[in-house]
Amino acid sequence: MTSGTIAWWLVGTGAGLAVYSYLVYPGLVAVVGWLRPSPGRPAPPDEWPLISITVPVYNEALHIQRKIEKILEWDYPAERRQILVISDASTDDTDAIVGRFKERGVELVRLPKRGGKTAAENAALPHLKGSIVVNSDASIDVPASSLKALVLWFGDPTVGVASCRDVSVSSTAQEGNQGESGYVGYEMGVRRLETRAGGIVGASGCFYAIRTHLHQHLVPEALSRDFAAPLVARRYGFRSVSVEDAIAFVPRTTSLRREYARKVRTMTRGLETLFFHRGLLNPVRYGLFAWELWSHKLIRWLVPWGGVMVLAGLVLMAPQVLWARVLLAIGGLGVLAGITGWFWPRERRLPRLLSIPTYALVGNVAALQAWIGALRGDLNPIWEPTRRPAPVDGSR
Description:
It contains twelve helices and seven strands. By secondary structure, the protein is an alpha/beta fold. It has a single domain, classed as Spore Coat Polysaccharide Biosynthesis Protein SpsA, Chain A, CATH 3.90.550.10. A seven-stranded mixed sheet has the order 3-2-1-4-6-5-7, with helices on both faces. Strand 2, helix 3 (94-99) and strand 3 (106-110) form a beta-alpha-beta unit. Helix 1 (3-35) runs antiparallel to helix 10 (283-317) and helix 10 crosses helix 11. The chain starts with a helix and ends in a 20-residue tail after the last helix. The model is unreliable at 392-396 (pLDDT under 50).
């Protein structure tokens, strides 16, 4: 095989991963959804089910009071909901603040030592009273109507998990992560198509609900429960849906470095979770779901390695092919823009011209590091929550 053939193979395969993952796959899912009959949204129940709302926290004194006050305002019968705050051995005033709401029915479960987010969620299992568990993060804002919109879908007996629609918002003029908004919108669009086609393969960790008997399955502490939820549901014959009118406003982080660390942690845990449930990748047994899992998760996670392949192929081509040199120059400018954005002064707003290449560079490098960490077995269940600013309701 000549170097030219190798170069073409590298460029074609690497680019093909990205094109399939981000363009072809959504298009195919849209066609599948168009061909399938829509089950329709369930009607409101005569009596809303008893639910358990869980909020795992670690040192969230800045947000927890506001979060609890918001939960108490959610449109849901007070006698039909249980509120559990699980403190992962917090060392600030989080526990004391939660204690002030005891008379209003808010329960505190405290871990004696830090174990991570999944360990905190596991610790809540013996305390659950509802038939449905609603999980929410402390720093996420949820409109009052979103809870019923989420729970409503459990009127469909085929649904095991219902996930919110994330809306990326800004609460500060010094915005350092504008590129995140477009990606979140794209991801929610893909989940909408998957729901129409049959079901999603990953839930939003900031606000999702699951049937309690599915949630009771213990998840190893190094894995991600929100990703595992639809996988467990499918294993037991249920589907998972993304609910358009169950909105969660997710404040964008103002630090690209924190966002980078979050992406590395999230994807490493995602890879380990997928490996733990690797049997679901079997298309003979799980059909459409296995295809979605391959396409939306594993192949998309391989796209950064595809970028490395394209780069290597272009370098091999460059001495003889003009367009390869042009693409390398354009790519170099993108990387330079991303590096500039990484070192951009935090007190100054990152120009939109730099925000997209910066977000792309951060995401792809974080993914490569996550792959290396996962393959090496570098698991770290100890949880350092993403510190987000207090959101402004409905702002973008």
